[in-house]
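Supplementary Methods, section 5.1.

A reviewer requested that the exact input to the structure prediction be made available. We therefore reproduce it here, unchanged from the version used in the analyses.
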Amino acid sequence: MAELTPIEQTIIKAMQELGATKDTSIKTADDITKKSNRPKGLVTNTLTSLAQKGVIKRVAREKASGYYIMQA
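The structure derived from this sequence is encoded token-by-token as follows.
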């Protein structure tokens, strides 16, 4: 797995606590923002970074995109 920054680690931890660990339990950026207690812009940028690193998967949906942690 790629080296993660402290904020990336915080976001991953929030996603784990929300149970966003498989494609049947995806969470929105709003869910992750509330859980991590960080600004939404920071969370969104971090989710993009994590997706580019292949740590999480972004799922485009009709309303809000969802995210989940890729299994190692």
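The radius of gyration is 11 Å. These observations are discussed further in the main text.
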